[in-house]
Structure to design on (283 residues):
């Protein structure tokens, strides 16, 4: 089920949190339900992915310890677990008021991830777009679940931020494990991934700065004690992106998720960013 990967579903909290409505009872309840639904659905897809890749996983230095590849979980039980998790994921949104929009997000996520797992995983460039879309749908799903309007800058930050993380992961994998356990890596060069990483980082920084300035210049956000924290949040964002770029292109090939989970500096920057956003939004 890859429970550590559930941290990605934290993106569902971003839109309600940034809107200042996260702690409204209905919004918080909808966000919790949406988070649980995405956790179940993504885990269902992870299991199907492990079933499909079981042979290649057995030759991977770390993936060979996954339950299915290691022979600790039978194929029949894995399929049964995937079916149960998917069913729960599709039933949970019934707890949301007017769940039609969120159901559309879930269905799009399911179609895209299954397309990735069974057909398009090794299609160059397209696979980057599909993985990026998974991050985007999580972020947008948090807004849709509670019917919260979001700014264009927010959507751009989320989309290119996701692309930045995906390209960073591919760059780290190319340097660390090569194309042996991910065939599509043979279609990429270090130069191409470097260019893609730089492009996406540039868009993220630019769009985030515009979002922070735009958000802190309207309505109640014109109050000074709100403007300053939100605009200061640009600093940890830029520094974190530089750290992730350095890690992805280092000889060790550190992936963004490894940095987020293990690097103390990146974690401190994330905490500082969160404190500034929470302080600016809820002050």
């Amino acid at each position: 089920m890859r429970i550590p990967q559930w941290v990605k579903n934290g993106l569902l909290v971003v839109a309600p949190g940034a809107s200042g409505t996260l702690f409204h009872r209905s919004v918080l309840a909808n966000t919790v339900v949406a988070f649980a639904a995405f956790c179940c659905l993504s885990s269902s897809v992870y299991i199907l992915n492990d079933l499909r890749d079981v042979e290649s996983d057995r030759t991977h230095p770390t993936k060979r310890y996954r339950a299915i590849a290691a022979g600790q979980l039978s194929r029949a039980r894995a399929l049964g677990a995937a079916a149960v998790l998917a069913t729960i994921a599709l039933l949970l949104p019934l707890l949301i008021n007017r769940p039609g929009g969120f159901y559309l997000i879930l269905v799009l996520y399911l179609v895209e991830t299954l397309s990735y797992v069974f057909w398009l995983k090794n299609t160059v460039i397209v696979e980057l777009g599909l993985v990026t879309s998974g991050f985007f749908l999580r972020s947008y799903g948090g807004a849709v679940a509670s019917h919260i309007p979001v700014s264009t800058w927010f959507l751009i930050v989320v989309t290119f931020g996701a692309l930045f993380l995906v390209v960073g992961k591919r760059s780290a994998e190319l340097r660390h494990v090569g194309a042996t356990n991910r065939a599509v890596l043979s279609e990429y060069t270090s130069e191409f991934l470097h260019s893609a990483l730089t492009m996406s980082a540039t868009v993220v920084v630019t769009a985030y700065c515009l979002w922070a300035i735009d958000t802190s210049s309207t309505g109640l956000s014109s109050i000074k004690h709100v403007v300053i924290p939100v605009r200061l949040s640009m600093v940890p964002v830029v520094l974190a992106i530089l750290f992730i770029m350095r890690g992805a292109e280092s000889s060790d090939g550190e992936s963004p998720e490894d940095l987020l989970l293990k690097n103390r500096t990146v974690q401190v920057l994330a905490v500082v960013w969160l404190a500034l956003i929470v302080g600016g939004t809820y002050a």
